[in-house]
Each structure stands twice: as C-alpha cells, then as structure tokens.
Amino acid sequence: MADEFEEREEELSSVEAIYPEIIITNKYTASLDIKVAPSPPLLVRFVPSAPATVLKATYAQAATPTAAHIEHDVHLSHLPPLNLRVTLPDGYPAEVEAEVNIKTEHDWLPETKLDELQRQLVDLWEDLGRCQVLYSYIDHLENAASSGFSLDQSDDGCLTLPASLEPALVSFDKETKLKQFQEGTYDCGICLEPKKGTQCHKIDKCGHVFCLQCLQDCYNNSITEGAVADVCCLDPSCGQAKAGQRARKPKPLHPRELLAMGVEDSMVRRYVEMKRKKRLESDKDTVYCPREWCTKPARSRKYPPIPDDLTQYPNSDSDDENASEPKIITDDDDRLCICENPKCGMAFCKVCYKSWHGPIERCHPRNPDELSAEDKASYEYIMAHTSPCPYCRSPVQKTMGCNHMQCYQCTTHFCYLCGSWLDKDSPYQHFNKVGSECYNRLWELEEGDEGQEPEDGEGFRGARRWEQMAIEVARAADEEDARLMQQEQQVQRRQVRQDDVERAMRLPQDLVHAVEEMDDQPVEVPELERQLLGGGIVDGVAHIGIDHPAPLADPAARPPGRRRRNPFPVGPPAVNGNAGRGGAAAAVRAHERGQRPLANGRAPPRRGPNAQPAQGGHGGAGIRRRAVPEHEMEEEDRAFFDAIDERGMHGPWDPDEV
C-alpha cells in the first residue's frame, strides 16, 4: 500500500511540474484545462434550425425539412478548452484505470466525441501494460485538440452547431487571438519601429500589423478627403497575385475594426455614409426621389440604413454590387418606392416616377432622354472632359500630370488617351512600346483635360474616342436639322411675300370690276390705279363700304331706249345778272351731294383731305381722291357747275353727269 501511495503521489507531482496550471483539488484528484487551437482552423457550421439534440445529430438531421436551411460557416482557430478532471483510485495503476471526466464550456463538443475520448484512456492504459498513463493521456488529448479532434474528417466535413452558440464561440476566438497578439512585439509596417502588441493592430482579413498611431493618422486623412477606397490594408503587397492565384484588390475595412483601432465615432460614421453613397451611385438599380428639392435614394433592402450602433453594420465582402444585373419588374408591388429622406418620405412609382397610384393602375416608363437643362449640361461636360475607367466605367478627369491614371473608385491603372488597362507594376511600358498608339505620348495634355484634342492631332482612342465620335455625329445631325429648318422657313417666308404681291396685283383689277358693275361703264385701269396710288391702295380699299354695300342696279333690268331726262326746269332765271348761280340747279347740286345750299344758292366748299366721303351717291361707297388744296377745289367746282348751268339754259342735261 505504501508503494501504491507513493506511485500515485509521484505521478501527480510529475504532472504538476510539467503543467503548472494543473489544479489538485484533493490528494489524488486534479483538474486541467486543455487548450483547443486546431490547425488549420476548424470549419464550424451554425444552423439556425438545429434542435436541442444537435450535438448528437448530423448536419442532415439538423437541417430538418421544416427548418429554414440557412447556415453560416465560420473558421475558428480557438475554441473553449477541454476541462479534464482525473481521479486516481485505490489500486491504480496496476489493478484499475484512472477515472476521468471531460466536459467543455458551452457544450460545443458533441457527446459522442466526449465518450470516445474517455474510452481512449482505457485503451491507452491497456496498451502501456497498465502503468502510469496520466501524462500520456494528457498529451494525447492535446494532440487531438490541435487537430480539431478530427471533426473535419466526419461525414459532414465540419462541426455542426446551433446558431445560438455562434456569438459565444466567435467572441472567444477573437479574445484569445487578441490576448496572444498583445503579448508579442512587432515592427510597424509604416514607421518601421518596434512596438508592443498593445500599441499595434493586426488587420483581420490579411494579418498585417501596424501601430495604432500610424493607422489613425492615415485613415483619418483618407476619410476627411473622401478617399473611401484607401481605407484598407496599407501594406503594398496586400492583394498581390500569389502562385497559382490572381491578384485581388484590398478589401475595405469594417467600421467595427476602425472603432477597435481608436478612430473617432464621428469619423467612422462619415466613412460608412460615404461608402454607402458610393455604392448607391454606382448601382444602376438605384431609384431616386423625383422631387427636385429632395432627390434622395429610395429605401432598399440591398442597402439598409446605417444603424446607430456601427458595430452592427452588415458585413460586405465586396464592393462590386454595381455589377448586378438589371432587375425585371414582374410584380406590381415592386413598383412602390419610398424615399428614405425622413423630411420627405414620398411614396412613388419607380416606373413612371409619379405619386403612388396603387398596384392596379398601369403606367408607362418615363423617357430617359428627357433630361433637365442642368442634367444635360452635366452630361455634356462629363462626355467632353473625362475618360471612362475601363473596369468600372467611372468618369475620370485629369487636371495635370502624365497620362498614367488610377481610378478613384476601383484603383485600376489605365491610359488616359486610349483607355487601355495598365499593369500597376510596370505602367509606363505601354508608352515606351514601339508601334503602340500611345508611343511617346506620356506627357500630352500635361496641363489637364479641358476638352481639347491631344497636341499631336491623333486624338483619343478607346471608349473616349467612340464617345467623341458619337458627340460629333449628334452635333452634325443637329446642325443639319437646323439648316434644313432654316431653309424651310426661308421658303415659307418667300412664298408668303409672293402671295402678298400677287394679291396686291389682283386688287386693282377687282376694283375695276366692282366699279364697272356699279356704273355699268368701262373704267380705264391706269386712271383707277392713279387714283388709288395717289391716296394709297390701303386707304382706298379701307373706305370702300364692304361690310354693308348698297345693292347694285342690274343693267339688264333697265328698260331699253333713251335715259330719263332731268324733271326740273331747263334753266332758272337769272338772278342779279348771274345766270345759273341759284335756283333749281343749285338745289340739284345740293341734293346730289347730300348738303344744304347756302343762302346765296352756292353749295358749301369741300372739306379737307381727311374728311369722310359722303354717304350718298351710287352704291353707298366712295373713293378718296388725291389730296388737293381747298382753293383749287373751289375753282374747279365753280368752272364745272358753270358749264352745267349754261347747258341747262340752252338744252336738257343728265343728272348722272353731275
């Protein structure tokens, strides 16, 4: 018995010397936590619908038909340790084996695996000839833990756990990594100075190490300047092509990681907002509010709003969401959009861009060519002063320098003249290659692109050239349309003038026919033209009673034979020695003129040239004659009526001659 006592005590003391962290709770009872750090990291699949007995089930049993079948795969490098509790009973090791109890925190290791590990102790005790086996068993467990207990060799190829365990296991993995990192010393990749782990940060996605001060300065400057693409790993070798792999651009950092570096919350929020805005603008499926004072994007499940807690911001493994295919609207409910601006909140249709009209009403798409003056001016400026990136098609404008450009959005290296992709390791080989379109053209447009052609006159190539050709063709078509329209307007104006001239030439002949119908006598056209032109054609026409013309006498209705004679006496007696200056002849003249005779038998003289024509006479219309001085008209009238008076004294006369 004394030998057994000494043998058990000796084994525990030896194990304690090797594993100082072992805890001996009783004289022959001890407990030890065995670290579980599988290499390579163990694939753990978290299934949301896993039942309570998932630790005894496979993945096929966990993903039941009633479950959602949505899993999340995570590679874990550190798992909660195994808690080994061992008791050395009486008769150990010669007669009985040691008693062990194995369990894990959060119960992440399946019970089948725990039972298997406990049975391996008995097998090991038998293989060693029933000798002291405690150290060998602990070493066996450590080797099994480093290989992940061969869980990756199972039928599922991974460890299947319920989703409720994911936060605890992931958090444990990160805390363990951080603790190990802080215990070391590293050289900063920027300032190249050795720093303690507590003053450094390790990038989660690539593992490069930099000191916190350098990271904060670089990222604050990038966010302030709006260079969202620069908020990534700062190591120049990050993302370069490895053997058998293609090069990848560095991935942007998550806001959670920026906060862990010590970057201020306001700066991180600005970074998230700019990053989200950049993705919205590059996505062709983004719908904007039609209100001119708002123009904010509509709510989208693809780009959820920014939460108050930035650590809960969803992960995005890639910035290439803009490469998504255009969505075909098949459901009427998909047309409804709501502006995400809290001050607006307008509900509108994404097809017709009008207020929401309900899912029943049909609508038609808005014509994309109908641009406002501001949008059209911006579009024309971009087409004339920028070159598109060959990868993401973002417009890039050169303000100064050489023609080796780097896209601000996707960091692609390309030629500004031809749009060719350039190798970032040797970008200037493109300009030194004999026979290339851009040979010796590195420094053209050195002072910037203001829309002019390159100095050698060869012009741009690639997408920029095609865009300029399209603009020139469209401009030439617009100029041709304007020229044809101007010619058509000139022809129309010329035709209008020709019609006016022809109408004016037909006017005298029409007046001749009208006068002949009124008087039933031919009229000399030159005499009529002289009268019309003397007072103006327009004035002459204006004074013709067109609105209410008097009925014309029908020549065919007049009886044949001699005209009717004047019923008044042949001639009045002389008055004070002046023959024909009063009496009946004066009354006839006053009657024909529609005026009252004066006391001396004379009719009043004619009025000035602005006087209106008399409302009597044939046809109820008169023609204004050429303006004649008043004294000349009186002399002409006196001579005319004296001749009539003399004829009236010696023979009959016709009142129509008056």
UniProtKB/TrEMBL annotation:
Domain RING-type: 184-442, 188-235
Organism: Cryoendolithus antarcticus
PROSITE patterns: RWD, TRIAD, ZF_RING_1, ZF_RING_2
Stretch list, region Disordered: 303-327, 549-636
Keywords of the record: Metal-binding, Repeat, Transferase, Ubl conjugation pathway, Zinc, Zinc-finger
Chemical reaction(s) catalysed: [E2 ubiquitin-conjugating enzyme]-S-ubiquitinyl-L-cysteine + [acceptor protein]-L-lysine = [E2 ubiquitin-conjugating enzyme]-L-cysteine + [acceptor protein]-N(6)-ubiquitinyl-L-lysine
EC number: 2.3.2.31
Source lineage: Eukaryota, Fungi, Dikarya, Ascomycota, Pezizomycotina
Pfam families: IBR, IBR_1, RWD
Pathway assignment: Protein modification; protein ubiquitination
InterPro entries for the chain: E3_UB_ligase_RBR (IPR031127), IBR_dom (IPR002867), Rcat_RBR_RNF14 (IPR047548), RWD_dom (IPR006575), TRIAD_supradom (IPR044066), UBQ-conjugating_enzyme/RWD (IPR016135), Znf_RING (IPR001841), Znf_RING/FYVE/PHD (IPR013083)
The keyword ATP-binding is annotated on this UniProt entry: no
Family under the similarity heading: Belongs to the RBR family. RNF14 subfamily.
Molecular-function annotations in GO: ubiquitin protein ligase activity; zinc ion binding
Official protein name in the record: RBR-type E3 ubiquitin transferase
Residue ranges with Low complexity bias: 573-588
